[in-house]
Specification:
- By secondary structure, the protein is an all-beta fold.
- The protein has a domain of 41 residues.
- The protein is 0% helix and 14% strand.
- It is built from no helices and three strands.
- Strand 2 and strand 3 form a beta hairpin.
C-alpha cells in the first residue's frame, strides 16, 4: 500500500532539517533563513511536516437515483 507519493517536490517547508519561522520563512542549520518554497541539496523529506491538499468535494447535484441503477 502506497501512503505517500514517490516524487515530492522539495521545499524547505517540509524538510527534516528546517524549522518554521512564520508562514513564509524557514530556518535551516545549513543555509540560514530560507524562503518556504525554496530548497537546497541537503533536503531530506519529513512526511509529518507536509500537510496534504484537501480532497475535492463531490458535486453530484445533477444526478438522480436512476443514474446509480444497473
Amino acid at each position: 500500500m502506497n501512503l505517500f507519493q514517490k516524487k515530492i517536490e522539495p521545499r524547505c517547508t517540509y524538510c527534516a532539517h528546517g524549522r518554521t519561522m512564520g508562514e513564509d520563512q524557514v530556518v535551516c542549520p545549513k543555509k540560514g533563513v530560507m524562503a518556504a518554497g525554496s530548497h537546497c541539496r541537503s533536503f531530506k523529506y519529513d512526511p509529518l511536516k507536509r500537510v496534504p491538499p484537501r480532497p475535492a468535494k463531490f458535486r453530484g447535484g445533477g444526478l438522480s437515483g436512476d443514474d446509480f441503477k444497473l
